[in-house]
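re: that chain from earlier
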Amino acid sequence: MELKNKIVLLSGASTGIGKAIARSLLKRKAKVVVFGQHKPAFSTKFYKVDIGDESQVVSAMSGIKRIDILINNAGSVADAEITGTSNKMLDDMLNVNFKSVFWMSKHSIPKLSRGGCIINISSLLGLRSFPGSGVYAAAKAAVISLTETLAQELAGRKIRVNAIAPGVIDTALWRKRFGPGAGKVLAEIAKSTLLKRCGRPEEIAHAAIFLCENEYIDGETIVVDGGEILCSP
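^ sequence. v structure.
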């Protein structure tokens, strides 16, 4: 797919992976529309939306006539073992990491151009969970399952649906998660990858651009983790 002048709806673009994806799209002359809580300085159009709230998604979507590409990127991370997971945490994690993808996809589909595509940002944890990541991992696994279903349902309109499963990417989100010792934690995690480093947001953006441009990939989850999945027990 040629990205010039394509209309891309992207959730969450003020920092990290979303910011890198937006910049990569803009370099290719795509028209980027952002749904989220924080306005990025470079977006062509911004709607302040709680994308985990269906009514807000529907309201914001009414201002958009056509979409060529939907990228569901927004997400949030919280750690807790299952026995320590509160009802609020459960709701928050599902709203941001799964329901947002569901509502954004559902209400974008009528506006998606034939031959368009959807890209969902999942996580390596959607394929392999770890203690303390139960709810987040379950939500990201649900994103992968939803990706496969959407790919089947939209194939008749030649709309491709794929997911990206990043490993640990050095972003503000992860540094906030790990707190003051984030640098040390990230360095330790880096040792568990084949490449012995954490990923960069731009490397996820590269994968997103690849999935937009390659018109023969559908229903897949592309793992971008430096080989971590091969090193994990």
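Residues 7-169+200-227 form a domain with the Rossmann fold fold (CATH 3.40.50.720).
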